[in-house]
Amino acid sequence: QVRLVESGGGLVQEGGSLRLSCAASGRTFSSYTMGWFRQAPGKEREFVAAISWNGNSRYAADSVKGRFTISRDNAKNTIYLQMNSLKPEDTAVYYCAASTITTMTLIDYRGPGTQVTVSS
Length: 120
Known about the structure:
120 residues; mainly beta; four-stranded antiparallel beta sheet; 0% helix
């Protein structure tokens, strides 16, 4: 069992930065691929970024490549999403997720989410 709690969301102006954190409980955290998804009002959930259990492999959606960076600290049971050059279209609820599948096509656990709002 893994419990996930996100933090770090908020309101930021276009071009600004935010750093999201996701704290996980559970002794098996380091065995999961971890990732971030987002969902804007009226839209489907969208994959943002993922990182392998050891941090050696990282994946990001084309829409955030070069702007967002995912990282993890297994000693702290935490993953991060550094978001730079934010755009209004990045506005969404951001969810942290854990999966035993590298591609995260199936999610085992998900946090409640944190709101990110980017004003123009």
